[in-house]
Amino acid sequence: MFIDGRNVPDGTFIETDLAIIGAGAAGITIARELSGSGISVTLIESGGFDFDAEVQNLYDGESVGVPYPIDTSRLRYFGGSTNHWGGWCRPLDEIDFEARDWVPHSGWPITRKQLDPFYARATEVCQLGSNDFDNAEAWSNDGKNRVMAFPGGDVVTRFFLYSPPTRFGQKYRNDIGTAPNITTYLNSNVTEIVPDETGRTVERLTLATLTGHKFEIRPKTCILATGGIENARMLLLSNTVAKAGLGNGHDNVGRFFMEHPHVDGPAQMVFTDTSSMAAWYPARVDYGNIHVRGVFMYGPDYMRREKRVGTIMTIHRKRVIAAGDPMLDDGTEPLERAMLNVTRSTTSTRGADENLGLLFGTGCATEQAPNPLSRVTLSDEKDALGLPRSRMDWRLTFEDRENLRLNFETLARAFGRWGEGRVKILFASKPVWEEAEGWGNHHMGTTRMTSDPRTGVVDADCKVHGMSNLYVAGSSVFTTSGTINPTLTVVALALRLADHIKTIYEEGA
Ligand SMILES: Cc1cc2nc3c(=O)[nH]c(=O)nc-3n(C[C@H](O)[C@H](O)[C@H](O)COP(=O)(O)OP(=O)(O)OC[C@H]3O[C@@H](n4cnc5c(N)ncnc54)[C@H](O)[C@@H]3O)c2cc1C
Q1: What beta strand segments (E) does 401-447 contain?
Q2: Cα of 474 to ligand 1 centre, how many Å?
Q3: Does 248 map to a domain?
Q4: Nearest 5°: phi and psi at 192?
Q5: Backbone angles phi, psi at 411, to 5 degrees
Q6: Is the per-residue pLDDT at 349 higher than 60?
Q7: What distance in Å separates the CA atoms of residue 235 and residue 472, rounded to the nearest whole number?
Q8: Where are the beta strands (DSSP E) in 225-367?
Q9: For the CA atoms of 169, 73, 463, 487, what is the dihedral angle to 10 degrees?
Q10: At 44, is the secondary structure helix, strand, or coil?
């Protein structure tokens, strides 16, 4: 059942077993999993079924570090940011969960293996058509597509599978609306999570609508699922009893904000043998309902040996290079001519008039190491509900930048050794990320998962340290960001949390 919060009489108290705050990928997944269970679920969503500029404005905030689009990098209505996500999916790698001695603050309290069964279920929720992410053989198109076999394993081909992309609000609206045990309040903003006087148990949620209505929900258990920036803001705003905010006894809420810095055009590539370029590298390829894109990543042995974090490189075709191409002019940069000369020498059978090769542009996304100074706090500015807005201080370090540049060098060497292509790096070593960089709209780390309450915000079950009945869902719980887009992991963790909630209720019943 859907209820418009603007029609709920002022001062109403609603009792429920489980309150889920936020109906995005995480909140909708958890609610669906609990559909038909004996648990009464109240799903609370700030927006309605469509975009509304006034509601969206509640997401506006300050950006005081590396410039960041705090408003436009998320959407505030039923379905959340999945209303405009791109659908790139892949699980995090095993190494992403490990404590890496060269990455301060790394190490999740759970392993990739523990998450594997949930990843399998998440591929269905995200409609990927397969749970086999690196099945190059099946996609080889009778040998026409082949994986570039870089010697040494430092650089490897990995595959993303695309979600259609699943618009969670549209695809699962009927499931949520018809579930007998789920009530969804739309146009209803949680303004504070209020604990009892011990500060350890959530007692009630205060809600407000933009029309000025105020009411309360009293849940036995509460899951905060408002997205990677807002989860931190909500905990910080919940400061009536705990002055520093809920779960913030060790000043970790909002810290460790991580993105996946994107760089457009960090390198150029030239390939001589165009037949060696599988179709899945420069573009998405569809195999029935499975949609595949090949990318370059880095092997775990390389990352351990060289003490690096990961990068994903994509390529896109720019143009054919034929005899007489401007790149061959004496006026062009020596490196470009050298790239072509080397590649030409690897294809001795070619005539002078034939295509000499293909020029590719590149894009990349890279892992940002956890940094406590990169953080979300509360601004002095207020939103339309009178609540302090978010203040984003996104920090990128010299080490983050240098890691990326050195990964490019490794990529260039791998292509050189492979022999059929050459890479020219355009990304310079600089002390700061001064040029306008891109980002992935991935908000991670602000309520990080750790086993030690002093170093994080939630435990391995996603329960807020020190709280008896408050959980967090979403990429804010990521201890480290890995390189891969977050949503498949968000959904896997949501499914795991839903199972955990079921167990609690079964044990308590
Ligand atoms: C342009 C774009 C492209 C993207 N592409 C990809 C991609 O290709 N692959 C990928 O993996 N990820 C991608 N992402 C990220 C992806 O959208 C998010 O990881 C995912 O939506 C997170 O799910 P969530 O449920 O944690 O948060 P959200 O989907 O953001 O949902 C949070 C919900 O909480 C609600 N809410 C917020 N505050 C309150 C409140 N106080 N009270 C009640 N409700 C509240 C919001 O209205 C919203 O519905 C992309 C994001 C953007 C913006």
Answers
A1: 421-425
A2: 9
A3: no
A4: -160, 145
A5: -65, -45
A6: no
A7: 10
A8: 262-271, 285-287, 290-298, 311-322, 355-366
A9: 60
A10: strand
Residues sharing a CB contact under 8 Å with residue 99, sequence separation 6 or more, in sequence order: 106, 107
Q: Which helix (H) or strand (E) holds 432?
A: none
Structural contact between residues 403 and 308, judged by C-beta atoms closer than 8 angstroms: yes
For residue 26, the SS3 value is helix
**From atom 49 of ligand 1, which residue's Cα is the shortest distance away?**
80
73 lines ligand 1 (CB under 6 A): yes
Query: To which residue do tokens 């929900």 refer?
Result: 217
pLDDT at 33 over 90: yes
Query: Which ligand 1 atom minimizes the distance to the CA of 169?
Result: 49
User: Residue 124 is encoded by which pair of tokens?
Assistant: 């269905």
Tokens of 360: 């590719």
Q: Render pLDDT for 410-421 as a digit per residue (tens, 0 to 9).
A: 999 998 888 778
88 lies in some domain: no
Distance (Å) from CA 25 to ligand 1 centroid: 7
In DSSP notation, 53-118 reads HHHHGGG-EEE-SS---TTTTS--STTGGGGS---EE-PPPHHHHS--TTSTT---SS-HHHHHHH
Q: Tell whether 312 is covered by a domain.
A: yes
Helix axes 487-508, 112-125, angle to 10 degrees: 100
Which amino acid belongs to residue 20?
I
CB of 32 within 6 A of ligand 1: the answer is: no
Residues 401 and 349: their CA atoms lie apart, in Å, by 41
64-75 core/surface letters (b: 16 or more CB in 10 A; e: else) = ebbebebbebbb
Q: Which residue has the tokens 């001064």?
A: 434
- Asked if the structure places residue 320 within a domain, the reply is yes
**pLDDT above 90 (res 273):** no
Specify which residues 267 forms β-bridges with. Answer: 425
CA of 112 to the centre of ligand 1 (A): 23
What CA–CA distance (Å, rounded) separates 217 from 220? 10
Q: With a 6 A CB cut-off, is 91 part of the ligand 1 pocket?
A: no
Residues contacting residue 443 through CB under 8 Å, at least 6 positions apart: 73, 74, 227, 228, 229, 257, 259, 475, 476
Q: Which domain holds residue 279?
A: 142-162+262-367+397-436
Task: For residue range 56-85, list pLDDT tens digits in order.
Answer: 999 999 999 999 999 999 999 999 999 999
Q: Which backbone phi and psi does 400 adopt, to 5 degrees?
A: -60, -45
pTM: 0.96
How many structural domains is the chain composed of? Answer: 1
Task: Render the burial of 485-500: b for 16+ CB within 10 Å, e for the rest.
Answer: bbbbbbbbbbbbbbbe
Query: Does ligand 1 lie within 6 Å of residue 421's CB atom?
Result: no
